[in-house]
Amino acid sequence: MDGVGLRVLSYNVHGRKDDRAALAAAVRALRPDVVAVQEAPRRFRWRHGCAALADSFGLVVAAGGLPALGNLIVVSLRVRVHGTWCLRYPLTPGRHLRGAAFARCSVGGVGFTVSGSHLATDPAERPLQAEHWKAALDAVDGSLVAAADLNEGPGGTSWETVAAGLVDTAGGCHTPTYPARSARRRLDAVFVSPGIEVRGLTVVDTDETRRASDHLPVLAELVLPLDPRGGDPARSRDIP
Questions:
Q1: What sign has the CA pseudo-torsion 208, 213, 219, 224?
Q2: Nearest Cα to 103, choosing from 78, 131, 74?
Q3: Cα 30 from Cα 74, distance rounded (Å)
Q4: 28 with 52: CB under 8 angstroms?
Q5: pLDDT tens digits, one per residue of 130-143
Q6: Can you tell me the distance from the alpha carbon of 232 to that of 240, in angstroms, rounded to the nearest whole number?
Q7: Which of 55, 81, 190, 207 lies at a CB distance of 3.0 to 4.6 Å from 220, suitable for a disulfide?
Q8: CA separation for the pair 132, 50 (Å, rounded)
Q9: Is 221 helix (H, G, I), strand (E, B) or coil?
Q10: What residues does 190 pair with on adjacent strands?
Q11: pLDDT band at 93 (very low <50, low <70, confident <90, very high)
Q12: Measured between alpha carbons, how far is 202 from 192 in angstroms, rounded to an integer?
């Protein structure tokens, strides 16, 4: 397929509570173009914290942080960011407020939208969050990459809601991602729109990633299709 390569990493960084040097080194070694971060800084001095996290990866902030409730999208200088927006899910009293981050981007003149989210641990509130995120994903025009810690595995109601109409970059390989030191459950995933070619998905299980967080990162190697319509790669249908 003709197109442009893109390396997308999804990573729950556990609020940077673990080995930060290992975290930075692990991400830098993977050379991602885009990282969808879960549990990024979202409270006091969150802008500084998000910028510092991105800088430790050798990347820059595109979208998220507090407005996306700890979901953060960071990118390499190879990626041009055209627009960003955030989504907040309805609050369940007594639970954490959660949401999603979106960035409308292009690389090599080819447009795409990336979104990251982190769904609830509570199985009672998670399906509604999945529905809200899915509705926002479905409103995106063009190539789409959706990366998340779904807090449940394939076959779950919320997982199936998000995955509907998209391609699971893992194919039929359900390598576990959590907990990092002895992974038993697949909670982390990257989904793409059908026109995107998937060259591979790697769950990065190394001594470094086991020290860096309680989740293992997942790296999707993609090829974005050239847009036969031409026009502005920054275009999308509706931006909230």
A1: negative
A2: 74
A3: 14
A4: no
A5: 999 999 999 999 99
A6: 19
A7: 190
A8: 25
A9: strand
A10: 147
A11: confident
A12: 15
- Give the tokens for residue 80: 């041009």
Task: Say how far apart CA 181 and CA 235 lie, in whole Å.
Answer: 42
| Rounded-to-integer distance, Cα 38 and Cα 100, Å | 9
Name the residue with higher pLDDT: 238 or 74: 74
pLDDT tens, residue by residue, 119-171:
999 999 999 999 999 999 999 999 999 999 999 999 999 999 999 999 999 99
**What does DSSP assign to residue 91?**
P
Q: Which residues pair with 112 in a beta bridge?
A: 105
Kindly tell me the burial class for residue 47, based on how many C-beta atoms sit within 10 Å of its own C-beta (0-12, 13-18, 19 or more): exposed
DSSP string, 144-195: EEEEEE-SS-TTSHHHHHHHTTSEETTTT-----BSGGG--B--EEEEE-TT
Amino acid symbol at 188: D
Sequence letter at residue 175: T
State the Cα–Cα distance between residues 39 and 74, nearest whole angstrom. 13
The amino acid that residue 93 corresponds to is: P
Report CA Rg, the chain.
16
pTM recorded for the entire structure? 0.93
Structure tokens, 143: 């190539």
Give the span between the Cα atoms of 169 and 144, in whole angstroms: 12
